Amino acid sequence: MIADNGIGIQEEDLPRVFEKGFTGFNGRENRKSTGIGLYLCREVLDRLNHGISIASRPGQGTLVRLDLGRRPRVIE
Questions:
Q1: pLDDT one-digit tens code per residue, 7-47
Q2: d(CA 13, CA 70)
Q3: E strands present in 1-76
Q4: Is residue 54 within 8 Å of 17, Cβ to Cβ?
Q5: Residues 6+ apart with CB under 8 A from 17
Q6: 14, 18, 30, 75: most buried by Cβ count inside 10 Å?
Q7: What is the distance in angstroms between the CA of the first residue and the CA of the last residue of the chain?
C-alpha cells in the first residue's frame, strides 16, 4: 500500500484516474498534472497480471493498493 495525507481525489474522478491523460479536478486546478502516471502504473501491472486499486477522500489523502499476486490470465 502507498498512502498520503494530501488533498485527495474527488469521488467523481476516482473511476477515471487510470485513463490516459485524465487529470481530474485537482489536475486542472493546479495545472501540474499530465494524467500519465496512474495510467502507466495500470498498464505495467496489467501486463504482469497484477492489480491496482485506489481509494481517496478530498482533504484526507489517497491510498493506492498494489496486488502483486498473480491473477489468472485471460487470452482473448
A1: 899 999 999 999 999 988 765 666 677 889 999 999 999 99
A2: 28
A3: 2-4, 51-57, 61-67
A4: yes
A5: 9, 24, 38, 54
A6: 18
A7: 30
